[in-house]
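Hey, can you fold this?
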Amino acid sequence: MPTSNFYSGMPLARDEALRRDAAALARLCADPNSRVLAVWRTRHQVTGTDAPRPVWHSGAPALSLLAESETWTLLGVAGGIAHFAVDVSHIEEPEAAPPLAGRGSFVDLRSIGPLLSRAEGSVMAYARGLLYWHARHRFCGVCGSATESIHGG
């Protein structure tokens, strides 16, 4: 019997209208209730080994990550709370850098995917995919101009 992709079925609303509203995005980036998933060189920050869970930053740590990251994307909204992914690849040792220190280790999603819930796995795969794309497409393939991240990433 065929099965669906384990990383499908993301539970966050991607909300195209919100993505086009720069003022609303700025408010969400400054909202301490927003949640941020840190990705370092395509690896996710997680806690636990037998039952890993993604580390979602909120409050001051989340605001700091959003403000200091050159590359971030709005993953979506659930329950009125915005969920972002930030690329922290510019940090040489992320597990020692505030606000990431002491919160977990960075691991490849493929090594823990089967241990996650479908919802967690799909959000993490979506975050990794978007940030990977941004890292690999810094310039237009047609004209060579620098690309610009708009509409919430």
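Oh, and this one too while you're at it.
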Amino acid sequence: MRGAAPREGSAAVAERTEPSPSLAAFVSERTRMVEEALDAALPPAGALPSPLHEAVRHSLFAGGKRLRPLILIASAEAVGGRASAVLPAACAVELIHTYSLIHDDLPSMDDSPTRRGRPTCHVVFGEALAVLAGDALHALAFELLAATGEPAGPERALWSVREIATAIGTRGMVGGQALDLQGEGRPELARHGNWPAEPGDGVYLIHSWKTAALLRACVRCGAILAGAAEARLASLTAYGEQLGLAFQIVDDVLDETGDTGHLGKQTGQDAARQKLTFPAVFGIERSREMAALHTQRAIEALKRWGSEADLLREIAQRLLVREA
């Protein structure tokens, strides 16, 4: 099935074969900070109940890119904030992302045997413990968010809690997952008119909620906690929305064209389950054009910014051409 999608201007986005030295340094240093903070936030694997903590650590330290915490930190730094000040929130969004992956991989959901090149949590520890591991990560995430202090202050800390909670609720990540399951094998739902809600394509609704909502919240929370002014927050919100859509479109394409060994998970599962993905609705080549267009829009949202937004611009460019 093929549909139409909005077109505007040129979707050409500059591509780098390698990240700039500044982005490479940012990723290396901030990833190290996040890894150390995550390790410190979690109980040791041997602490009671040890099987639960082993399951949590199995999934959390499976080699993820830490994209969401990096985006949150990059947003904070773009408005003059410090990485150390937003580190609890950065860790929180990674805990939430990992919990969502554990639950998505369950047999009752996507039934995925591998994730990031290793057996999924339920394969190693059983379904019941995997559910509890996800629950534990979810709870710890809000414990960290609630501990966010200076220089954000209590009002902005509470604001960030509300942002994340909304982004992962029934009109965010969890709702998007429900729509994703509902849409399996039902191509008529690709057109959003068959779902009585906002105008637009059904596949856009699924992924705007399932993926883009949390990425947008990461961008917003970094800026909120760093004290961003309203005008800057508005442009960052637009950036985050477009970045999230581009990210998901590329992810959908990679599921059909990528290599299982390189991606660290089985490819072709979306098609096998007849999911409503961008390639299923629009085709692979049109999906690639759409990803480029949304990346362009993300970058254009920062057109009034100077060099302080260069890392955010390059992150968008790099995510467009990623292979995993």
